[in-house]
Design goal:
The complex is a heterodimer of chains A (397) and B (176).
Chain A: E1 10-11, H1 18-41, H2 43-73, H3 83-89, H4 93-103, H5 107-110, H6 116-119, H7 124-129, H8 132-163, H9 167-194, H10 207-231, E2 236-237, H11 242-273, H12 276-284, H13 291-309, H14 312-315, H15 318-340, H16 353-376, H17 387-391
Antiparallel strand pairs in A: 1-2
Helix pairs in contact in A: 1-2, 1-16, 2-3, 2-4, 2-9, 2-10, 2-15, 2-16, 3-16, 4-8, 8-9, 9-10, 10-11, 10-15, 11-13, 13-15
Chain B: E1 7-14, H1 17-29, E2 36-38, H2 46-50, H3 57-83, H4 96-123, E3 142-147, H5 155-164, E4 169-175
Antiparallel strand pairs in B: 1-3, 1-4, 2-3
Classes of the chains: A mainly alpha (397), B alpha+beta (176).
Chain lengths: 397, 176
């Protein structure tokens, strides 16, 4: 119960700063130009960078939805005042659905199963599972389902802003449990279909969880940046405090460890058993200049964030927390890049304007939907029945 | 810190959490440093009110964790590289990935046991049969105890202070 508990509660309409607005529109223009050029000039590079960036922002939106869902499911009080930021991130779902439909155009460049000539080289069981229409069906179920659950859960939260009906919170509890089950199944299939099947002869049963851990870690990093920004912004006062920042920092550290745990679990079993059809994945990622990238993941995605976030002070320090969050967000891109690119270009890392342009385009879309949502609605779920818990939230250890 | 003998002093018994929280801050402002607040459950803000500094247990945990990591590395290195090398699947004798689970486990084991040990040391446990100030302190009452060896201790002054701060009763007792 420090001095902040006496801080005056103030909330005003969010208005995106001019610099952010112009950045978003510049990003969008860059993205569209890169996409248009890529379709004609270098479709393979275009679609690999498209898949990486598409998966990156889909992970952020799904991670935010998962954050909302598990907080509802746990009846968490502390997060009530920061939930709206995660809800803003889920406003990307319609774009995610549309961009997954656009991805269908790139199937023949990306996947062995997307091409009728190479499709018949696959094992019979994989030919059944990876039929393009079947993959598209699963992808659509994932996109539509996420959107639908997002609309219901976030919609209830927005409705509550106006009428203050507590029953909506209880409705969201069961919806959230439903979403968690849906997310567990379909996010696993989503990552298997779009990422793991790039190398259709290889499989790993922990792959979905690997993508999940990476997604949640980067979501926490993104939320940490938004919280630090909002805490020091003119729009909010008293609702978001150092205590919320501290707890998101703890989540970020926790999922950093979780990511390392999953990544190591996948690696050690394959390394130990040393079966040719399994080691293929790691062999591709240890040759032709991929070894430094693999080690960069270990160091900058686990060791550096973990050791930096250990002391209590660094989670409550704006500069340190934001720097680590940016590092994690960069490493999330490197991680997805590391999952996609070794399967292409004779296993040699290729990075350049295509990747940056497409990534910026998606970043523009993501930030555009997010800022639009924040401008349209309250920055805090002001009528949440558990809001008083969040305002008094105090991390004593 | 562990104290060997019980120390006499004055305890004010409070009935409300908010009163005891304010009282603790006032007692601290009055210049007492060795006083203690006794509550049946953790009271938010009590650390700041009493001026309790951050615990040093995390440093013990971190140091012991690092020691555990190195100890495990030493253990597996000695057993599987020097003393009894066995070729498993043609892998090098010194294969770090295979050692990591053991290093992780010993890190956790050392860190956890040392933290518990440090906690016992800080709290002076095991504390067998300490004097009881008021048996309701484990249920619904709160107390602030000022030992007689505290700076500027004066039984009458302390009694008056406690009364002023809203204590329900003031007792002369021994703690620890």
């Amino acid at each position: 119960m420090g001095s902040h508990s006496h801080q005056e509660l103030k909330i005003s309409k969010f208005e995106a700063p001019q610099a952010l607005k112009s950045a978003i529109y510049t990003f969008l223009v860059i993205g569209i130009i890169t996409f248009a050029l890529g379709v004609f000039k270098n479709p393979e590079r275009l679609w690999t960078s498209y898949l990486t960036a598409f998966f990156y922002f889909a992970s952020l939106a799904c991670g935010a939805m998962f954050f909302i869902a598990f907080n509802h499911a746990a009846k968490a009080g502390w997060s009530a005042s920061i939930r709206r930021f995660a809800e803003a991130m889920t406003s990307y779902f319609p774009v995610m659905l549309i961009s997954s439909l656009v991805l269908i155009l790139g199937f023949k460049y990306l996947y062995a199963w997307g091409n009728p000539e190479t499709f018949h080289n696959l094992a019979h069981s994989k030919q059944i599972y990876l039929q393009p229409w079947f993959v598209i069906t699963r992808m659509l179920i994932f996109g539509l389902g996420s959107w639908y659950f997002g609309k219901l859960i976030v919609g209830n939260s927005l409705k509550q802003d106006n009428n203050g009906d507590h029953a909506l919170t209880y409705k969201n509890l069961s919806l959230s449990i439903g979403y968690i089950a849906f997310f567990a199944i379909f996010f696993t299939l989503f990552s298997i279909d779009l990422m793991m099947s790039l190398l259709p002869t290889w499989y790993s049963t922990i792959y979905g969880i690997y993508c999940f851990a990476a997604a949640i870690q980067s979501t926490m990093a993104f939320l940490a940046i938004v919280i630090v920004w909002m805490r020091n912004s003119p729009w909010l006062s008293g609702y978001v405090t150092e205590e919320h920042q501290h707890d998101i920092g703890k989540f970020l550290k926790g999922f950093t460890v979780f990511w390392a745990y999953i990544a190591f679990s996948q690696f050690i079993l394959i390394w130990y058993a040393n079966i040719p059809e399994e080691t293929e994945f790691y062999i591709l990622r240890s040759l032709n200049g991929w070894m430094p990238v693999s080690f960069a993941l270990l160091i900058f995605r686990f060791i550096v964030p973990f050791l930096t976030l250990l002391p209590r002070g660094s989670k409550r320090n704006n500069t340190i927390l934001v720097s680590i969050s940016v590092l994690v967000l960069v490493m999330q891109y490197v991680d997805l890049y590391w999952l996609v690119y070794p399967n292409f270009y004779d296993g040699v890392p290729k990075f350049g304007g295509w990747e940056i342009g497409i990534f910026l385009g998606f970043a523009g879309l993501f930030l555009l939907t997010m800022t639009k949502f924040m401008t349209k609605h309250n920055l805090v779920a002001v009528q949440d029945p558990r809001l008083h818990e969040a305002l008094k939230h105090h991390v004593s250890y | 810190m562990a104290k060997k003998r019980s120390i006499g002093g004055t305890a004010g018994i409070f009935l409300k959490e908010s009163t005891v929280l304010k009282a603790a801050a006032k007692v601290r402002e009055s210049g007492f440093i060795k006083f203690d607040a006794i509550t049946p459950y953790p009271v938010h803000g009590m650390e700041e009110a009493c001026g309790i500094k951050r615990s040093w247990i995390p440093y013990v945990t971190f140091t012991a964790g690092c020691a555990g990591l190195l100890a495990a590395l030493g253990l597996v290195y000695y057993t599987s590289v020097i003393d009894w090398p066995i070729n498993v699947g043609g892998k090098p004798m010194f294969s770090l990935p295979a050692f990591i689970p053991i290093m992780f486990e010993l890190t956790v084991l050392f860190a956890a046991l040392s933290s518990v040990g440090a906690l016992f040391y800080i709290c002076g446990m095991p504390k067998i049969d300490p004097p009881v100030i008021d048996k309701d302190l484990t249920c619904h009452k709160f107390a602030i105890f000022i030992p007689e060896n505290d700076v500027g201790y004066n039984a009458e002054r302390v009694e008056k202070l406690m009364k002023d701060l809203g204590a329900d009763e003031v007792k002369k007792v021994a703690e620890y």
